[in-house]
Amino acid sequence: MEYLRLRSGGKMPIVGYGTYLTTGLELEIALNKALEAGYRSIDTASGYGNERSIGKVLNEWISSGKVTRDELFVTTRLPIYGNRAKDVEKYIKESLKQFQLDYIDMYSIHTPFGVFQGDTTDYTKMQRDDSTDHLKIWKAMEDQVDKGLIRAIGLSNFNVRQIQKILDHCRIRPDNVQNEIHLYLQTPELIQFCQKNEITVTGYSSLGMKDGRKLLGFSWANEKLPEMLENDVVVEVAKKHRKTPAQVLLRFFVQNGVSVIPKSTNPQRLMENIRIFDFELDPGDVRALRSQDAGEGGRIVRFLFFPGITEHPEYPFPIQF
Ligand SMILES: NC(=O)c1ccc[n+]([C@@H]2O[C@H](COP(=O)([O-])OP(=O)(O)OC[C@H]3O[C@@H](n4cnc5c(N)ncnc54)[C@H](OP(=O)(O)O)[C@@H]3O)[C@@H](O)[C@H]2O)c1
């Protein structure tokens, strides 16, 4: 495993285990396999509803002496319906209760916009909260770092302008930005901006969110893009290195210092996804893979299921396509 250094003092494994759209027994079995395969960084969000299952497995591993808490790196996020300064402490404590842990390694604002939960759990019925105030939320997160409940703080789905505003006003700097980053949405400017500012970058949906995309009815903004794992350039590069397309898609970013958090509940595939440290893409491969960037056309996660969300003053993406 390779690690990215955090300004707050810790280190984050460059490959983590994604857990979106999986919970309960399926997740518990898969997470055991992932820990056996060597994953030590686990990515979730309080909105995923699986912190309890994750915590159960992690605590079993800690209490049986197979890992120490220090060796684990747990990331979770403030829910989109809790994107208010006054709710930060409540949701951090709720996450800690679900995990049955004393602290969270990385706590991030899930999205730059907020919604009201009301009395529903259905995202498509949650109304926009246009009063989202990043600086107040950030200050509330800094206070929780002081209390020791969270070790490092980060941002997710923020654009460069929004990150810069936090940098201009913060006491504790963001240690991570987690955004959709993959073959079709490479965001080189955002990556360079973060790396210049010593903020680690994590890319999500590195494999194109395969089944999840279909399940949620998402598509690339440019619907003509082929399945990323079947992209001709990726398949060619994979053949050349005797690796799988998934390994090439992950290695492409890890080699550039970007962390990845592929999700798989399949023991063979989750193993494959962490075995990416024994080969290197050459400059020709990198050039060919770069040429596949589709910019905004490659975006999958646009949060359009929230009614009227593109009208929120902090909606981060220029997605007209
Ligand atoms: N911050 C945010 O707003 C945000 C948004 C989305 C995701 N995330 C995080 O990022 C993580 C990863 O993104 P994601 O879950 O959207 O999708 P992903 O990791 O790009 O893709 C997961 C899909 O790919 C399949 N897969 C995994 N490994 C494979 C392999 N080696 N070969 C072929 N297929 C493979 C999985 O199926 P099997 O399970 O059957 O292998 C699953 O269908 C999430 O789980 C979540 O933790 C964060």
Automatic annotation (TrEMBL):
<dbReference type="GO" id="GO:0016491">
    <property type="term" value="F:oxidoreductase activity"/>
</dbReference>
<dbReference type="Pfam" id="PF00248">
    <property type="entry name" value="Aldo_ket_red"/>
</dbReference>
<keyword id="KW-0560">Oxidoreductase</keyword>
<feature type="domain" description="NADP-dependent oxidoreductase">
    <location>
        <begin position="30"/>
        <end position="291"/>
    </location>
</feature>
<comment type="similarity">
    <text>Belongs to the aldo/keto reductase family.</text>
</comment>
<protein>
    <submittedName>
        <fullName>NADP-dependent oxidoreductase domain,Aldo/keto reductase, conserved site,Aldo/keto reductase</fullName>
    </submittedName>
</protein>
<dbReference type="InterPro" id="IPR023210">
    <property type="entry name" value="NADP_OxRdtase_dom"/>
</dbReference>
<dbReference type="InterPro" id="IPR036812">
    <property type="entry name" value="NAD(P)_OxRdtase_dom_sf"/>
</dbReference>
<dbReference type="InterPro" id="IPR018170">
    <property type="entry name" value="Aldo/ket_reductase_CS"/>
</dbReference>
<keyword id="KW-0521">NADP</keyword>
<dbReference type="InterPro" id="IPR020471">
    <property type="entry name" value="AKR"/>
</dbReference>
<feature type="binding site">
    <location>
        <position position="110"/>
    </location>
    <ligand>
        <name>substrate</name>
    </ligand>
</feature>
<feature type="active site" description="Proton donor">
    <location>
        <position position="48"/>
    </location>
</feature>
